[in-house]
């Protein structure tokens, strides 16, 4: 799973944890009021293992998502519709509490507007909890109490325990508290949420709207919760006679402290797998994988050789590493679709030039489509007559030792014939898609 930011077309940025690949059936997870994506952490991980594509959101004002001046139900429904527009195919939505209400409204009201089903299925967990007024009152109390806590998070934990009779463990506290610039602790959500529409103690005013939206829903829907004295269950039965009910007379805790996959997770998983099979694939999320690889800081090299006519050829590469001291070996990797692949295959020699901190322009030049990359680049040749760039931090002149297949790359191993090092220069670094220069150590 990767924790990332979604920049939506309505101008709002939401935090989300994402796993799986876009080729798989997508499941969008929406937490309840006062929670974050952590509420569905165990379900998200299980769904990913079952080969589903999972997007678990922090709703606006919660977790690390944007704080705004609008926390209406309409605004949050609009956010979810914007997220759905970013997905390559229809998603199923699993929602808890306010997340379940948002799911019904997004699916049903869009069906009323456009006549189209935007989702594959709905799983609604306690969308109208019997103790909603009490739960929301406690959330308001907690947000106020934590905002007055000092920098000691033990006292912040005690403030929560005084209200809920639950003491958060050090491994759990990070889900609900954030440290401010002044090093004090605050509740993870915007304090303005406490006075917003979604924290209203009386949900009865929402019932006609939710019922109307539910009547328009035509996709498989599962409702999980208590039937006793629950007006939403009664309304849903009338609106959706084919809806699946899963009775669960208890409520999920205000804080989801269960360290394992619990019965609510299991109910939701069962509901999903009964109606939607994942698209089985051995692929990983290539975008997430590329970002993960990019988190490893590397140096930057220019690999050079000459073609059959003696013309210099070179390209920027950071897939370079040392291999052996005896014999002295190194390697670099070249993509199978590189225009220079055949040139390097047929050349007996090549050079690796490790760029210094002030040679970013050279890196960009040799990564571009400039035809004569060497025209503006000082270079020379040594005994093997391949181009050696000047003013680098290090250069290696190599004889080709071996070539191996490496998936969508070829792995070139070279035996070092001659090496040069300028220890006075600083290296050019590349990490997370950008260039960096390491700080110079003070004497």
Question: Which descriptors would you attach to this protein?
Answer:
443 residues, elongated, single chain, 29% helix, alpha+beta, Pnp Oxidase, Chain A, Rossmann fold, 2 domains
Distance between the termini: 42 Å
CATH topology of the largest domain, by name, is: Rossmann fold
What's the arrangement of strands in the largest beta sheet?
Answer: 1-2-4-3-5-6-9-10
> What overall geometry do the principal axes of the alpha carbons give?
elongated
CATH architecture of the largest domain: 3-Layer(aba) Sandwich
Low-pLDDT residue intervals, each spanning 5 or more residues: none
Looking at CATH, the homologous superfamily of the largest domain is Alpha/Beta hydrolase fold, catalytic domain
Summarize the main sheet: 8 strands, mixed
Mean pLDDT, to the nearest integer, reads: 83
What proportion strand? 25-35%
For the record, the CATH class of the largest domain is Alpha Beta
Decide which structural class fits the backbone: alpha+beta
Rg is 29 Å
Our count of domains comes out at: 2
Share of helix, binned: 25-40%
The total of beta strands comes to: 22
Number of helices: 12
């Amino acid at each position: 799973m990767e924790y990332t930011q979604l920049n939506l077309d309505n101008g709002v940025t939401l935090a989300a944890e994402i796993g799986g690949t876009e080729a798989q059936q997508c499941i969008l997870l929406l937490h309840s009021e006062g929670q974050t994506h952590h509420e569905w952490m165990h379900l998200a991980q299980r769904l990913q293992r079952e080969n589903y594509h999972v997007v678990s959101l922090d709703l606006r004002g919660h977790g690390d998502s944007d704080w705004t001046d609008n926390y209406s139900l309409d605004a949050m429904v609009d956010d979810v519709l914007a997220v759905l527009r970013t997905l390559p195919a229809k998603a199923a939505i699993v929602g808890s509490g306010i997340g379940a209400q948002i799911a019904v409204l997004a699916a049903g009201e869009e069906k009323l507007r456009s006549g189209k089903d935007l989702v594959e299925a709905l799983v609604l967990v306690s969308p109208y909890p019997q103790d909603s007024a009490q739960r929301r009152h406690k959330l308001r109390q907690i947000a106020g109490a934590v905002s007055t806590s000092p920098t000691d998070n033990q006292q912040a934990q005690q403030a929560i325990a005084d209200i809920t009779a639950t003491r958060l463990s050090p491994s759990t506290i990070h889900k609900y508290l954030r440290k401010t610039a002044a090093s004090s602790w605050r509740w993870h959500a915007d304090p303005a949420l406490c006075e917003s529409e979604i924290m209203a103690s009386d949900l009865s005013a929402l019932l006609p709207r939710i019922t109307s939206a539910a009547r328009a829903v035509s996709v498989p829907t599962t409702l999980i919760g208590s039937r006793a004295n629950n007006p939403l269950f009664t309304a849903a039965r009338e609106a959706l006679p084919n809806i699946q009910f899963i009775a669960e007379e208890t409520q999920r805790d205000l804080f989801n402290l269960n360290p394992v996959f619990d019965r609510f997770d299991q109910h939701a998983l069962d509901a999903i797998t009964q109606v939607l099979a994942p698209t089985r694939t051995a692929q990983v999320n290539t975008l997430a994988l590329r970002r993960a690889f990019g988190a490893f800081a590397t140096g930057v090299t220019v690999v050079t050789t000459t073609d059959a006519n003696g013309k210099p050829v070179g390209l920027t590469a950071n897939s370079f590493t040392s291999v052996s001291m005896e014999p002295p070996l190194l390697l670099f990797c070249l993509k199978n679709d590189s225009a220079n692949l055949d040139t390097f295959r047929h050349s007996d020699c090549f050079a690796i030039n490790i760029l210094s901190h002030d040679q970013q322009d050279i890196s960009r030049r040799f990564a571009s489509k400039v035809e004569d990359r060497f025209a503006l680049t000082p270079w020379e040749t040594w005994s093997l007559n391949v181009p050696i760039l000047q003013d680098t931090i290090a250069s290696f002149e190599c004889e080709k030792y071996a070539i191996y297949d490496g998936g969508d790359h070829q792995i070139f191993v070279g035996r070092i014939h001659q090496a040069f090092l300028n220890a006075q220069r600083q290296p050019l670094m590349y990490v997370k898609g950008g260039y960096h220069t390491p700080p110079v150590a003070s004497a």
